[in-house]
């Protein structure tokens, strides 16, 4: 490859509150690569940098790299710079192969390393390349004004090696096969963005609901997933959806999508935080659940000396193991019932809710089924 050097680091890419550097989405990179290829093809001169508009109206300039140019097609790529976000696609080459088409307009497809949609429920129809609507609009916008005489453009986006990193994304769970997705809503990758993670979770529910399934099993993470597999009968693997720290948000999203039954499985270190009214369970927003669990046990009539000893323990896991060892394991079932009541109150009469609490090994220790 030749052409453009460096990975653009404009001052506007620094986040005001954190001082961290924003990155560019795969959609932004694809749009810039497409414009570079079209300019090269039309003007015969390779543009080392191209300017494109982001969805919010801001213009950004990215370096592009030349791949090849023929008489009717050209291909450029942009090296993705994810800024200070630990993005799995950081440093990957996002290619756009642009060729003249007889019909007016812009036709967009995916090539090597770009996944293909195999399940309904996503914003892209089954069978099409996993290039989301906003990146498609950005690519078309980047080619606006660069109209070949009497025709249009065909653009093929590819990401060499995309199939090798797709397993580190949600794509396998979403039914996107063979590579990564071309994504982006603002054009920027926000560094270590909780909001970006939050936006990535509801599509898991969309795909499950579109399959006709009326039951979903929500888990905070791997511990809950392991425990869910031990339920009798266990849910199907595709029914288990991780919510991370967005417990309240994902409960609401599941309810709004009309799931008739919501099964909640996880460690009380996460789930019992809602006893304090904390539905976003990240440590930045919610304190430990220790105090809430001990207060619950005290209200249930546990002896004062045991309550005092529980207060000296530093983790929820230690507290629940002490309850089991002291013969009060039934309180964990009562705790699950209390969590179930709070969830049902939040969601209203729509879905039926079941709660299963587990230990760190994924063993079920308390249930409100």
TrEMBL record:
InterPro entries: CbiD, CbiD_sf. Pfam families: CbiD. Pathway: Cofactor biosynthesis; adenosylcobalamin biosynthesis; cob(II)yrinate a,c-diamide from sirohydrochlorin (anaerobic route): step 6/10. SUPFAM superfamilies: CbiD-like. Signal peptide: none annotated. The keyword Transferase applies. Keywords: Cobalamin biosynthesis, Methyltransferase, S-adenosyl-L-methionine, Transferase. GO terms for biological process: anaerobic cobalamin biosynthetic process; methylation. Its EC number is 2.1.1.195. The keyword Transferase applies. It catalyses: Co-precorrin-5B + S-adenosyl-L-methionine = Co-precorrin-6A + S-adenosyl-L-homocysteine. GO terms for molecular function: cobalt-precorrin-5B C1-methyltransferase activity. NCBIfam families: cbiD. HAMAP family: CbiD (MF_00787). Belongs to the CbiD family. PANTHER family: COBALT-PRECORRIN-5B C(1)-METHYLTRANSFERASE. This is Cobalt-precorrin-5B C(1)-methyltransferase.
């Amino acid at each position: 490859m030749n052409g453009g050097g460096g990975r653009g680091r404009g001052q506007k890419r620094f986040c005001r509150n954190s001082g961290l550097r924003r990155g560019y989405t795969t959609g932004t990179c694809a749009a810039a690569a497409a414009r570079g290829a079209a300019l090269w093809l039309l003007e015969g001169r390779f543009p080392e940098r191209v300017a494109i508009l982001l969805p919010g109206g801001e213009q950004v300039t990215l370096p592009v790299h030349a791949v090849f140019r023929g008489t009717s097609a050209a291909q450029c790529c942009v090296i993705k710079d994810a800024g200070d976000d630990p993005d799995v696609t950081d440093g990957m080459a996002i290619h756009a192969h642009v060729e003249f088409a007889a019909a007016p307009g812009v036709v967009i497809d995916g090539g090597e390393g770009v996944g293909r949609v195999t399940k309904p429920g996503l914003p892209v129809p089954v069978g099409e390349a996993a290039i989301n609507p906003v990146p498609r609009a950005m690519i078309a916008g980047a080619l606006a004004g660069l109209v070949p005489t009497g025709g249009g453009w065909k653009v093929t986006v590819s990401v060499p090696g995309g199939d090798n990193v797709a397993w580190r994304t949600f794509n396998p769970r979403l039914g996107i096969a063979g590579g990564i997705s071309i994504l982006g809503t603002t054009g920027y990758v926000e560094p270590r963005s909780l909001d970006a993670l939050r936006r990535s979770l509801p599509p898991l529910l969309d795909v499950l609901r579109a399959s006709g399934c009326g039951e979903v099993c929500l888990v905070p993470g791997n511990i809950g997933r392991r425990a869910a597999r031990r339920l009798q009968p266990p849910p199907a693997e595709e029914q288990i959806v991780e919510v991370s720290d967005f417990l309240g948000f994902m409960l609401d999203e599941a309810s709004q999508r009309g799931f008739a039954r919501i099964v909640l499985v996880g460690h009380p270190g996460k789930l019992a935080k809602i006893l304090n009214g904390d539905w976003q369970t990240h440590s930045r927003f919610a304190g430990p659940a220790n105090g809430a669990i001990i207060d619950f046990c005290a209200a249930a009539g546990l002896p004062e000396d045991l309550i005092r000893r529980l207060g000296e323990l530093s983790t929820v896991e230690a507290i629940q193991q002490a309850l089991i060892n002291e013969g009060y394991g039934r309180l964990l079932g009562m705790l699950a019932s209390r969590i179930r009541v709070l969830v049902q109150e939040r969601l209203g009469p729509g879905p039926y809710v079941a709660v299963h609490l587990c230990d760190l090994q994924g063993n079920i220790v308390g249930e409100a089924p």
